[in-house]
Amino acid sequence: MDTRSFLYALWSIVVLGLFLLAAVYGWSPFAEGGRSRTSYAYGGSGGHGGHGGFYGPNHK
Amino acid sequence: MQPEASLSPPPAPAVRALSCPNCGGTVELRAAGYTVHVGCQYCGSILDATDGLAKLVIKAQTALAYPEIPLGTRGTLFDVEWEAIGYLQRSQNGAYRWDEYLLFNPYHGYRWLVNARGGWSFGTMLTRVPTMQTFSTYALEGTSYTRFFRGDAQVDRVVGEFYWRVAVGETVKTGDWVRPGFMLSREANDREISWTINQWLPERDVVAAFGVTPAAKVWPPLPHQPSPWGAWLGKGARIGGIALAFLLLVSLLLSGTRWLASEALPVAVDGREQSATIGPVHLVSRWQRVRVRTTVPRLENGWVDLDYSLIDRRNQQVYAASGAAERYEGVDSDGPWTEGSRDSDVSIAGVPAGDYDLIVEYKGNRWSQNDTAYPDGGWMEPTNAPQIVVELGTGTLYAGNFLLALLLIAFPWFVGLMLHLRFEKARKEQSDFAPAASGDGDD
């Protein structure tokens, strides 16, 4: 295999590897939402709605 | 039978020396017995060497030529050792100069080493005449060659020995037909027509064989220079095709959404912000994409703001997203129109396994054409019982990831294709028969 083909094959493997890795982690740069920097108890819902306080099974 | 006692070394090439009648310099004959004319390397005079004596044919030329490959230099091309015995500098009536070296091997005869604009070709004289296929193509051994050049070639400088009566100013009619890697050249004068097949040589082969100095990139390419990307495109298509097939297969296996929860939520007709909780929802995969799809069935000329907070019950970690469903309709001079969608579909990336609650904050809105707030109830009329339907599901694959991977895999191949087309365009533009020049009366 010549160098150019080898590099292209390597590139394709890297892209496929990253695609599989993203699939395994359910990650995408195109996702509308993701992990917020703050937890619900201390900082609200990350700027989406302004909730405060603790939320979870305790008050259900 | 006993072998001979010892193997003697091969005989040294027979080199005969003649004295130039013009300058007295010693002229070496490396192909004695075959050589007809010799160009003196000291004064440039052309001598006749047919009968063993150097007879002056043409006295010293105006300027001497100094070939890049010194005559007498030996080099191996195609597993045969060749000796450079003659050098011609030729041109098209003084323009577009190129160099031709006559190579000689006593067992293989003569060959040409041609240097045009820094690019090299290895020429073999043909003993058969190519077949004319069409007006623009010739065939040799079943392979077609397309016409490329037509013109005159004259000899400007001569050094060394030649198998014909070469002379400065000698002019022939030329025609060239090409295919990638090869050029079929015809030279004709009043007495004869000769054909040569020129094979393009990578510069490294000539550097290794004759020690020439590497030249800069040949651009535009030689007429028969093969595209450096052409051969790779086929291999690249196979590699890229395998990668894309694998990508498609994996995508088919990973596609789809498993819906876990669905709930219809009423929309307040007064337009206030509302909040609802859906859950708990158990996410089983170690990591996943969470998809939240909201449908507003009766939405017309209005929108619903949507904020989602997916909260991990274990550690209160928030995974947030927002969206909107909006749809408008109306009538203008072109007729009725609609815009937008009654659905909002958002995804939350990288959510780990666990038990989650989804808090949905939403607010219904009506669009007013007259800048008056809610001139009528619209889609939020109480009789419509406005509501949103929120669905939550999990999956792994994003269409955006698939498209991105597709583009990244295909990108290098398309770059190669673009470079190949650029190369071919530049190559073909040199032709006397390029489409742009067809109206100049070439035919």
Intertermini distance of chain A: 63 Å
> What general form of chain B does the structure show?
rod-shaped
User: What is the spatial order of strands in the main beta sheet of chain B?
Assistant: 7-8-9-10-16-15-14-13
Rg calculated over all Cα atoms of chain A: 21 Å
Structural class of chain A: mainly alpha
Class of secondary structure makeup of chain B: mainly beta
Characterize the biggest β-sheet of chain B.
Answer: 8 strands, antiparallel, barrel
Number of domains of chain B: 2
Number of helices of chain A: 2
* Count of DSSP strands of chain A: 1
InterPro entries (chain B): DUF4178 (IPR025235)
Keywords (chain B): Membrane, Transmembrane, Transmembrane helix
Pfam families (chain B): DUF4178 (PF13785)
Protein name (chain B): DUF4178 domain-containing protein
Task: Please give a structural write-up.
- The complex is a heterodimer of chains A (60) and B (443).
- Chain A is mainly alpha-helical.
- In chain A, 43% of the residues lie in helices and 10% in strands.
- Chain A is rod-shaped, with a radius of gyration of 21 Å.
- Chains A and B meet through α1, β1 and α2 of A and α2, β18, β19, β20 and β22 of B.
- β1 of chain A pairs antiparallel with β20 of chain B.
- Chain B: This is DUF4178 domain-containing protein.
- Chain B: It holds the Pfam family DUF4178.
- Chain B: Keywords: Membrane, Transmembrane, Transmembrane helix.
